[in-house]
Design a protein that fits this description.
Two copies of one chain form a homodimer. Chain A is mainly α. In chain A, 61% of the residues lie in helices and 8% in strands. In chain A, β2 (82-86) and β3 (94-98) form a beta hairpin. The structure holds a DNA duplex.
Chain lengths: 155, 155
DNA sequence: AGAGATAGACAACGTGGTTGACCAAATAGT
DNA sequence: ACTATTTGGTCAACCACGTTGTCTATCTCT
């Protein structure tokens, strides 16, 4: 048994699993036409959602400043995933909405994640995957932000 | 079985677990005097090791360019975690070595990670933690790089 | 001794974040 | 209704972290 398991390994394994999934996702997305999609884009599109949000609201959801959110939107616009439109109800605001290309990315991502989980089930068995998920649910504080992006290095 | 579990949740849980661990680690490190330590620093110090390496070698270990490694070393020097010394055997090379402050960070990190794993064991039981680790070991490709830093956004 | 590989540094750039300042529009308070 | 404050968007400067390209100095191999 793993009596001498060092606590060092756990974060590495968790990150490794995450990273493996995300790498496979983007491999597959690239193969399906989303060559320029990056991990951060998916999270942002997810936060934008099908209803659309303002940049300020996006910043709140992602846990970053409105300026940072604005820059992210700029990049997404340049890549064709979202577009800005003047708000109908607020003269200051601009609503960021997914383009059909953006909706496509989200849909494909969901499908690919399902496939990847199915692969894990194929190697580990459904019980161990279920157990892994429920263990993590029990131990991960709820409402964890997916700000995540720069969190690694910067203050 | 959990028929409706979306594949979307798995990466989020994995990342959440990782993130929770790292956040707790840095809370505790800050409390113990390492206020300016960032996740990326720990990984770099780990790669430098107690023997010391050149910037180019560090780049190789981290899977980044030697220039990027050099910049990382600059930051670590500024924070007091490492120091540069001319190599005894190679007139071009400068050896990066941990300071005692850097060694201290690594030692405290190891201790804290052990405590955190013990907390998981306390909530989940040893079987579920062992099972989680072995499941991930089976599914994470070995030799996964901890380059990781910028990998989120950039190419 | 000369050719090629390697270490380090410099510059320019891209991505993703931060503050601070500013204007225009919405909203609250008297 | 008219100020006062809050809020949305943007600009500018900066930092962390990565990239490529170029350059010099040194090492290594033939």
């Amino acid at each position: 048994m793993s009596a001498v398991t060092s606590g060092y390994e756990l974060p590495l394994l968790l990150f490794g699993g995450f990273r493996a999934l995300i790498d496979r996702l983007h491999e597959e997305l690239a193969r399906q036409g989303h060559v320029d999609a990056r991990p951060a884009h998916g999270f942002a599109l997810q936060a934008i959602g099908t209803t659309g949000v303002t940049a300020a609201e996006l910043g709140r959801r992602l846990g970053v400043s409105k300026q940072a959110a604005g820059k992210t939107v700029d990049r997404l616009v340049r890549l064709g995933y979202v577009e800005r439109a003047a708000s109908e109800v607020d003269g200051r605001a601009k609503v960021v909405r997914l383009t059909s290309f953006g909706v496509d990315l989200l849909a494909r991502s969901a499908a690919i994640f399902d496939e990847l989980r199915a692969e894990w089930v194929a190697t580990l068995g459904i019980e161990r995957v279920d157990s892994l998920e429920s263990a993590l649910r029990a131990v991960v504080p709820p409402g964890l932000r997916v700000d995540s992006f720069g969190w690694f290095g910067a203050d």
